[in-house]
Design goal:
It is a single chain. This protein is of the alpha/beta class. About 30% of the residues lie in helices and about 25% in strands.
Length: about 180
């Protein structure tokens, strides 16, 4: 795996062996960023189930100012730390070593781009988007990018957000919510 494009484009990403995380493939990651706008001019991103940190690192590579990466798995945290060091710009990243609900208690400010790829997709996505919205952590122009198995059907609306785009890539479905 590697960073697809931007400042860190072509640099390798480490991932965990085994089935505890399912890293987003380079192809799907590239497709996500083509869908949401390939490059950014600043902003904050949140990856609530970071795994290898690839989505958040890719977002910063493509112009986001900073990324908050959250993962509760100790092995994933180690991989994320190594991948952050690979960027040589560690100050742009904040790794929260906790689960999603604990992270919500620590987060402040607004996020412009949120990635959600939880292990039990439908239930957790609806709950997390609702909680992020309720806690006023989403900017008015936020994009919430949800990655699920292609058979998962998310609701058309969650809180004040509605589906903007949805595409299937192989076994993955990408759903993007906006205000």
């Amino acid at each position: 795996m590697r960073i697809v494009s931007g400042l860190y484009g072509g640099r390798p990403l480490k991932t965990l062996d085994g089935k505890t995380t399912r890293p987003t493939s380079d192809k799907v990651r590239g497709a996500i960023f083509n869908m949401i706008g390939p490059y950014f001019d600043g902003g904050r991103t949140l990856d609530l189930y970071a795994g290898s940190g690839g989505l958040g690192i890719e977002a910063v590579s493509r112009g986001m100012s900073e990324a908050v990466l959250v993962d509760k798995d100790r092995r994933a945290q180690s991989i994320i730390s190594e991948n952050i060091q690979m960027t040589k710009e560690a100050w742009k990243f904040d790794l929260l070593k906790m689960d999603d609900r604990q992270a919500l208690k620590h987060l402040s400010g607004k996020f412009d781009l949120v990635f959600l790829d939880p292990p039990y997709a439908q239930e957790q996505i609806v709950n997390m988007v609702s909680m992020l919205d309720h806690q006023d952590l989403l900017s008015p122009d936020v994009m919430v990018v949800c990655e699920t198995d292609k058979g998962v059907n998310l609701p058309d609306e969650i809180g004040s957000l509605g589906i903007w785009k949805q595409k299937v890539y192989g076994i993955s479905k990408i759903t993007v919510y906006i205000h």
